[in-house]
Amino acid sequence: MRLDDSEDQAAFRAGLKAWLAEQLPESTPSAPRTWSADEVRAWSKALHAAGYAGLTWPAEHGGRGLSPAYQAIYAEESALAEAPDHAGVIGLGMVGPAIVHYGTDAQKAAHLPRILSGETIFCQGFSEPDAGSDLASVRTRARRVDGGYVVDGEKVWSSYAHLADHCLLLARTDPDAAKHRGLTCFLLDMRAPGVEVRPLRQLSGDTDFNQILLSGVEIPDDCVLGEPGQGWRVALTTLAHERGTFGITLTARLAVQLDRLVKTAKACGGDTDPRVRAEIAELYVDLQGLRFTGYRALAAMERTGEPGPESSILKLRWSQANQRVSALALRLLGAGAAADGTDAFWGGYWQHQRLRSRANSIEGGTSEILRGIVAERVLGLPKSR
Q1: Nearest CA among 98, 118, 220 for reference residue 163
Q2: CA distance 268 to 245
Q3: Of 242, 279, 310, 363, catalytic
Q4: Closest CA to 180 of 220, 138, 146, 118
Q5: How many CA atoms lie within 13 A of 7 on its CB side?
Q6: Which of 58, 106, 289, 365 is deepest in the core (most CB within 10 A)?
């Protein structure tokens, strides 16, 4: 594991930082800005034009063919600059690589260029109310008919489904097969008859997650991704790409949050309280541990081509640390700020973050599932089920 950039990587980082500084407004001590859907789409086009979309995609499919280290540099610097995500972040980081690996020529031509440019937005239809993070237990059923399949079922916690044009859908095509078999992945048109999207409102008021109801949805054969019955393999490929530089992004975002927490402590006079200083110091230590674990995971991925169990440790500890940051910030602001939802320093930012952070231990793999992965794959403990 190396902790510094190579000469080429350093040049890439310097160019990226200069480009981000030119494209983004200067940061202010106030809460971060929000981005409209139109602004995010415009940003995605700018990323594509500048060559920062699809960094690790093969050149023949519109990418730059770079190693994951370059994607990690982009993830880190864009998070530190508080840039918005690419509009098609799921398609870019997860679905696109799966299409590159398993898609037909027609599927690649239809989807890959539009994912890169941000014209097509994908969501992911994996989790279900009775399956959660246990993908092998999905019950959404795809029944074989002449020329395709008819799908009935329900998906939940689907990020950006209310904006998506297509969905990478995992459904059971052979109910008699073993749990990990008999699954098939589909490229579902979200505007097809029988598809209904219902937003899930969180404590914070956000509605980024959604429920997808599927009732008699017809999917033609040419929308099957990979071979029928091989959906588990496609899903694992998708999730491996999700975990690739996930930890680097989370760590950089936590660094921004911790810096904002320090500013809040100073503004409130809490920086002289030894207990507050100790809590912030503990969070800083956690941040450094996460950072170097992320680098170790990246080094392992570059050696083996696949992310290891470190990504589960990163996600688990990040969710805990991020919740502690917002909880401490709210304590610093006092009971009045927590009650009325505003404060003199951040205009309600920390109140929103405190409520939003409650989902951190559910989204991207629940903490319970992640602990199981760590227990089995890191500690070598016997499986509990």
Answers
A1: 118
A2: 35
A3: 242
A4: 138
A5: 0
A6: 365
Beta bridge partners of 212: 155, 197
Residue with tokens 């800083």, as numbered in its chain: 284
CA–CA separation, 83 vs 25, rounded Å?
10
- How do strand 209-220 and strand 195-200 relate by DSSP bridges? antiparallel
Q: What pLDDT digit, counting tens, does each position of 296-334 carry? A: 888 877 777 666 677 788 888 999 999 999 999 999 988
Contact 123, 153 (CB under 8 A): no
The answer to whether 152 and 216 have CB atoms below 8 angstroms apart is yes
State which H helix or E strand residue 216 sits in. Answer: strand 209-220
CA dist 280 and 274 (Å) reads 10
- Which of helix, strand or coil describes residue 353? helix
The angle, 0 to 180 degrees and rounded to 10, between the axes of the packed helices 246-268 and 310-333 is: 20
Q: Which residue shows structure tokens 């489904």?
A: 161
| 49: number of Cβ within 10 Å | 10
Q: Which range in 49-53, 82-86, 233-237 is most confidently predicted, on average pLDDT? A: 49-53
Q: How far is CA 120 from CA 66, 70, 333, in A?
A: 23, 24, 42
Please list the helix, strand and coil fractions of the chain in percent, rounded to the nearest 5, in that order: 55, 15, 35
Whether the predicted pLDDT of 28 surpasses 80: no
- Name the CA radius of gyration of the chain, rounded: 21
* Known catalytic membership, residue 26: no
Neighbouring C-alpha atoms within 13 Å toward the C-beta of 381: 10
